[in-house]
């Protein structure tokens, strides 16, 4: 979706058949730390974001859906401290699966548009509304202003078009 920018992460959506046990969860997160680096900190590694879902938790589709595991560079310090996020309900899966069905490349298995059920528009819009609630006051966005503005522009674009766009493509031209 728009090409890989210098500070973009590589998004991977993984579907598995069974839930992860705690030992596997910890080992996988530790291994992902070795394969990823914060943007600009490595000449050989890119930041990766991995979202792992269990097939039966998202097929058939229901909102809100459950995420089995997520890894991203924002979690690095917690993982190093031995804090491992458990499986949880994740409203963002409505957005992520819509994006995957519209713009993705399957590395293994069928294309996302064939594999995943369509996310109803009402679920997508509810996820967008819930995302807006993340930023109620200045401390909620402090230090992450760029990403918040880009995300807000994507929400606006999606609300108008019903489609998902890369952050920079959703900004009005000339901005």
From TrEMBL:
InterPro entries: AadA_C (IPR025184), NT_sf (IPR043519). Its EC number is 2.7.7.47. Keywords: Transferase. This is Aminoglycoside (3'') (9) adenylyltransferase. It comes from the Bacteria. It catalyses: streptomycin + ATP = 3''-O-adenylylstreptomycin + diphosphate. NCBIfam families: PRK13746.1. Residues 115-167 form the Adenylyltransferase AadA C-terminal domain. It is an enzyme of class 2 (transferase). GO terms for molecular function: aminoglycoside 3''-adenylyltransferase activity.
């Amino acid at each position: 979706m728009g090409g890989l920018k210098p500070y973009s992460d590589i998004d991977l959506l993984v579907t598995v058949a069974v839930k992860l046990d705690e030992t596997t969860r910890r080992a996988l997160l530790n291994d992902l730390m070795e394969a990823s680096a914060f943007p600009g900190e490595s000449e050989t590694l890119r930041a990766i974001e991995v979202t792992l879902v269990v097939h039966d938790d998202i097929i058939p589709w229901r909102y809100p859906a459950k995420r089995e595991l997520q890894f991203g560079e924002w979690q690095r310090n917690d993982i190093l401290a031995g804090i491992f996020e458990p499986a949880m309900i994740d409203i963002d899966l409505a957005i992520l699966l819509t994006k995957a069905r519209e713009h993705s490349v399957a590395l293994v298995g069928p294309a996302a548009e064939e594999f995943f059920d369509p996310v109803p528009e009402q679920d997508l819009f509810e996820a967008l509304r819930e995302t807006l609630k993340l930023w109620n006051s200045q401390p909620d966005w402090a230090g992450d202003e760029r990403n918040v503005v880009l995300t807000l522009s994507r929400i606006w674009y999606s609300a108008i078009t019903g489609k998902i766009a890369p952050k920079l493509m959703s900004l009005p031209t000339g901005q």
